[in-house]
Amino acid sequence: MFKIQTLNNISRNGLDRLPANLYSVANEVAAPDAVLVRSADMHKAPIAASVKAIARAGAGTNNIPVAEMSARGVPVFNAPGANANAVKELVVAGMLLAARNIADALGFVRGLDASGDLHHKVEAEKKRFVGTELAGKTLGVVGLGAIGVKVANAAYALGMRVIGFDPHMTVDGAWQLSAEVAKAGSLAELFAASDYLTFHVPLNDKTRGAFGTQALELVRPGVVLLNFAREGIVDAAALRKGLADGRIGRYVSDFPEADLLGDARVISLPHLGASTGEAEENCALMVVDQLRDFLEHGNVRNSVNFPETRMARTGSARICIANSNRPNMIGQLSHVLGEAGVNIAQMHNASRGELAYSLIDVDSPVPDSLVAAIAAIDGILSVRVIGN
Ligand SMILES: NC(=O)C1=CN([C@@H]2O[C@H](COP(=O)(O)OP(=O)(O)OC[C@H]3O[C@@H](n4cnc5c(N)ncnc54)[C@H](O)[C@@H]3O)[C@@H](O)[C@H]2O)C=CC1
Ligand SMILES: O=C(O)CCC(=O)C(=O)O
Q1: What is the pLDDT of residues 38-54, one digit of tens each?
Q2: Number of domains in the chain
Q3: Is 253's C-beta closer than 6 angstroms to any atom of ligand 1?
Q4: 153 and 281 share a domain?
Q5: What is the ipTM for the molecules in this complex?
Q6: Residue 380 maps to which CATH number?
Q7: Would residue 124 count as lying in a domain?
Q8: Which residues does a 6 A CB cutoff place in the pocket of ligand 2?
Q9: I need a surface site. Which of 17, 49, 146, 210 has the fewest CB within 10 A?
């Protein structure tokens, strides 16, 4: 029986794919085998030694201590692209909210006194909410991954000019991107050309503060800045300076900030990008399937720290081993198996950066002494036996 701990609400349709005879699922679990999480901050509490995998039902994994998990030989999975459409639609809504003063106008109508001549009040005041159109404006998209590509294509379909910047764009992403989206040679070029600017990059040491004081000097006065990626992507000081001197016309964000809550130029949403029934279900289905494949067969799909590794099962048992990616690890493993008289039926080894992962199917049961001997090899991060 595998014990799964959920740290956030995970779509029921996803959880239903965990058969009750094999899995128990709860919020509070002693010694869980795996954790299912959305946005809960896993940096804040120690992660139990029993955890063999973490599955993020979403895209960003900055709430998970990925480097620490790699050092423990624990894969972290996510659901690439599974919520991208939901985020795209909210980004489009965000551009429209900013362009047409929709939030202010809604506030005005909600505050109207229902008595008297409503029609007159509406017609007299509507000039306060005159907006602009998106068509003909330029949108700069930083990060052309699952979300950025969809946002770029949608904006083009709305009549916007679109330019994008992503030095690591994938071939798949390029296939999906409209040929009408122009490539910016640099971030500076993109900043200078954009009326609307949107970021769709992961938060990491390279992207933290990607919109900072330098960007502020380059952007068009009154630029509409959209941040549906992560709070840290936009530097706090640069944002406040830009709002104060009017360089930033509007800030539309999925991450409310305490001191900006009352600022009329700031439109904040409560991290709603992926909050649609469809996206929540897509993410849950994807990560639950990946988690099952890992726990039951050791296979790895869509991990952010492990290499893709899949092998059909043969033999009586499977040994799953994560180790430091250095010479002679396979040699030592096969030596230890040979010493124990265990024959390798088939094996698959793959590496990613500093980590390597092997699936070894064997013809006979794996004794505890062999597991201990493998774990004792210098550089082994984790060992697990399935189907013994
Ligand atoms: N508001 C919300 O509810 C949601 C927010 N997100 C955030 O959006 C981010 C992006 O999500 P996806 O598009 O699904 O991820 P993705 O991994 O498909 O795309 C990210 C893209 O950013 C690019 N990139 C990385 N560093 C870059 C840099 N320095 N400059 C330019 N491009 C760079 C990558 O090459 C990649 O193409 C997530 O990491 C997450 O933080 C994702 C889903 C929901
Ligand atoms: O699960 C959520 O609602 C947050 C989604 C998100 O931010 C992500 O997928 O990176």
Answers
A1: 999 999 999 999 999 99
A2: 3
A3: no
A4: no
A5: 0.99
A6: 3.30.70.260
A7: no
A8: 38-39, 58-60, 83, 273-275
A9: 49
**Mutation test residue for ligand 1: of 63, 66, 90, 147, the one with most atoms within 8 Å of CB:** 147
In terms of residue numbers, what domain contains 69?
A: 1-82+274-306
Q: For 220-271, write each residue's pLDDT tens digit.
A: 999 999 999 999 999 999 999 999 999 999 999 999 999 999 999 999 999 9
The ligand whose atoms approach the alpha carbon of 164 most closely is 1
Q: Say which residue the tokens 């509507």 belong to.
A: 126
CATH number of the domain within which 177 lies:
3.40.50.720
Residues 185 and 281 occupy one common structural domain: no
Task: Tell me what pLDDT residue 150 has.
Answer: 98
Q: What percent of the chain is predicted at pLDDT more than 90?
A: 98
Geometric angle at alpha carbon 385, from 379 and 386, rounded to 5°: 145
Which of 6, 36, 37, 39 to mutate for ligand 2's pocket (most ligand atoms within 8 Å of CB)?
A: 39
Mutate to test the pocket of ligand 2, among 62, 83, 230 (most ligand atoms within 8 A of CB): 83
Q: Model's pTM, two decimal places?
A: 0.97
